[in-house]
Amino acid sequence: MTHQPSTINYQHFAPAKVNLGLSVLGLRPDRYHELHSLMVPLSVGDELQISPADTLSLHVVGADLPTDERNLVYRAARAYLDAAGVSSGAEIVLHKYLPLASGLGGGSSDAATTLLALAQLYPAEVDLPALALKLGADVPFFLLGSAALAGGVGEQLTPLDVPSVPLVLLNPAVEVSARDAYLWLDEGRGFTPELDIGGILQALRNGVDVPYFNALQPEVVRRHPPIAEALQALSGAGLHSPLMSGSGSTCFALAHSPEQAKATAKALAEQFPAWWAAAAAVGGRESA
Questions:
Q1: Is there a binding annotation on residue 57?
Q2: Any known ligand binding at 106?
Q3: Boundary-marking domain end, from 132, 159, 186
Q4: Is the residue at 111 inside a domain?
Q5: 212: which of 21, 30, 154, 254 fits an S-S bond (Cβ 3.0–4.6 Å)?
Q6: d(Cα 208, Cα 200) in Å, to the nearest integer?
Q7: Of 230, 240, 217, 242, which Cα lies nearest the Cα of 268?
Q8: Alpha-carbon span 81 to 87, nearest angstrom
Q9: Which of 75-79, 206-210, 214-218, 281-285 comes out lowest in average pLDDT?
Q10: Secondary structure percentages of the chain, helix, strand, coil, to 5
Q11: Residue 128 lies in a domain
Q12: Do residues 181 and 260 both lie within one domain?
């Protein structure tokens, strides 16, 4: 089959995410974990340039990452092109702005954005959610483009309307393997009950302390003291409801206004020059 590439915008934004609460209910029979998490896209993220080409190629700017099958973006592109029956390829340039292995879903978002971009570039009857799930448990979330309650291994998604609250992200230059984080949780049997989603949404709307938690946080923090320092720094800067996102190491806390978020992120970047700090907002790019 011959595919003619569509005329589209070749610049694509791949948003980061945070977990506004992450509960691990237990181990499933298949040895994966049963999750209950409120996931929200953010106004900060990576950028991809994807254009038609004779073959598939990937170039990464801003990080020392492989550019072959070891890279999730490359695997996503290869999976879509094969499923769509496209004999040509794509030239992909990934501009990496998010820290690596940081609990922000950067790699998963980059992969999902690649699938969406190629579906525009080479339209075909392809089951994108099925492709996404094969690439990783978080990848289907980034196809949605909205906040969602995630269950199962993260693939059972219920879109939710979440207020666009401002927040500050702080990464203490520590890389945490998600595999390790879940292994440590298993060793400590630190399984948790479901999140109070109604209570979380009400607190977000009212700008008060949010009753969320991260089941992975205690064991990860115990092994990586800089994460505890980051949580304390966010709280000490006048923000509220600090929490580690995902498996870490990025932490976040909520601000009362976009202006406070921007000023605090700037101050933290000056206080911790070796760390990564950014102001963001839930669900849009306006406060990036």
A1: no
A2: yes
A3: 159
A4: yes
A5: 21
A6: 10
A7: 230
A8: 7
A9: 281-285
A10: 35, 30, 40
A11: yes
A12: yes
**Same domain? 254 vs 140:** no
Q: Given 143, 159, 175, which residue is the final one in a domain? A: 159
Residue 6 lies in a domain: no
| Average pLDDT over every residue of 163-188 | 95
- The pLDDT tens digits for 254-263 are 999 999 999 9
Residue given tokens 């996404």 in the structure block: 132
Does 103 carry a binding-site annotation? yes
Q: For the chain, where are the E strands, in sequence order?
A: 11-27, 33-53, 57-61, 89-95, 148-152, 156-159, 166-171, 240-244, 251-254, 276-281
Q: Is residue 1 part of a domain?
A: no
Is the same domain home to 190 and 240?
yes
Count of alpha carbons within 13 angstroms of residue 18, beta-carbon side: 33
Whether residue 152 is annotated as binding a ligand: the answer is: no
CA torsion, points 12, 42, 45, 179, in degrees to nearest 10?
-120
Question: Is 43 annotated as a binding-site member?
Answer: no
pLDDT at 172 over 80: yes
Percent of residues, the chain, with pLDDT higher than 70: 95
Which residue type does 238 have?
Answer: G
Same domain flag for 271 and 215: yes
The residues carrying an active-site annotation are 17, 138
Is residue 6 predicted with pLDDT exceeding 50? no
70's tokens:
């070891």
Domains in the chain, number: 2
259: its two tokens: 């202006």
Domain ranges, residue 187 = 166-281
